## 1
Amino acid sequence: MGVLELRDVGLEFPGKPEPVLSGVSLDLQAGEFVTVVGPSGCGKTTMLRLVHGLLSPTAGEVLADGEPVRGPSTRRGFVFQNDRLLPWRTVIDNVGFPLELQGVPRAKAREKARELLTLTGMGDSESRYPGQLSGGMRQRVNLARALSLDPDLLLMDEPFAALDAQTREVLQAELLSIWARRRKTILFVTHQLDEAIYLADRVVVLDPHPGRIREIIPVDLPRPRTLDVKRTAEFAASVEYVWNLIKHAILAERRVD
């Protein structure tokens, strides 16, 4: 039994001509890093929201540790594209905030937050406010906050999309380092194909209208991975393969239109 199971999952919204997702089946094992790519409108973010429990499927079921997902849970952390840090709280108090909501005393919450800020490279910024941080620094804090309740599964919705290319690559490498130390199960949505392949054990490619799995691709690149792997012929071939799958879906949709 996996940490996460999607069994023939579909989602329809009233008044919409077609499902957002249809027949999606996927298992994630403990400690696995899986990325999701596909054309705009294929349901990537919707899949994450179903897994987190923010939405309920209209067909099939989503299971976490063998139990049906009925709503959000602290066992599933969510990292949004926009960090949503509280501007009136310091960095350390932003990270400790979820713990405080669970009734953890503030001193204990700060102790845990300090540990996570060190893990994410933000240990020297605990007294600063979000408005004093760069985009990359804010996302490091965002990740530390998502880890504060020690979730079994981490859901990440294009967390690096708004960052410049250099910062994005640095954070990709740092995320892999954190993942290697903590071994959280991660489901990560991205539009960046090189990011998807660099990070993942498997890449899930979705087709649009309705969103459905076209192919699940194992990534055979050895770990640990440095950014240098992106300059290899094997990596380039993997990017090209995934791009051709997505391009085929886009062109097929245009022919139908």
## 2
Amino acid sequence: MLNRIRDIGHLLREAGQTAKALRQKGLQIQEKGPDDFVTNADRQLDALLGSQFQAWFPDDAIVTEENLDSLKAWPHAGRTWAIDPIDGTSEFLGGSPHYAVMVGVLDGPKPVAGWVYAPEADELVYGGLALGGLYCQRGNAPEIRLQPQQPAALTGKIVLSGKDRERYGAAIREVFPNTEYYSVGSFGLKVLEVLGGRADAYFYLNRRVKLWDTAGPFALARCAGALCCDFDGQPIAYDRLDRTTLAHQQHVWVGWPDTIGTYRRDLAQALATVPQFQNP
């Protein structure tokens, strides 16, 4: 893997800029399920990335969002590459810049490396425990080591999706009345808001997020020292995925240890009063 770091970065940039160009030309859109869409760009990038990673790493499991047959490769005792060709499809369809191309690596059940590439910003963030740190590269500029930014004091800002805000926003404000919510589309970009010190935490509460959404971002978060856990404080476990869809069965919290200690107990009690929290 280490000898392919630059190749992976170049491939993700190629894929992301291809997605950007295809969006400018006009997309072909299909509905996979309720509020779940796929475009010709998703499928084209999925095939490109899946085939190249399989060629590079023939002994590893390759799981990609749009190749349903590839889901059968999980769980895998060795190394698994989880690929999301376009993370933040709604934003991609809506003309927003907040989408990303993502790759994550799991060693057994543990995320150990990840890449998040934002095509509109032409910015790649990658790293993990297996890569010895976190790095950022913008365009063709030299990469720099990325230093996570844990706020010295709570910002009062929480990253929360629009759907979760509709369901749980009022309950959160009952215990934290000065909270400010915002969203940036892609799951990976939301996690980077926390690692960059711009938000106290990211909550994901509807239990639809899947292996390829979390593997890369969680690898970055783990390397930064942030926590990825549920509202009981239990780590997000990859041996508890739905075996058919590879969706996580836990609510997700990404934040710093001190922040989670401040929020978790009161917030968990408040959210427990909302029926959808237990039965989304």
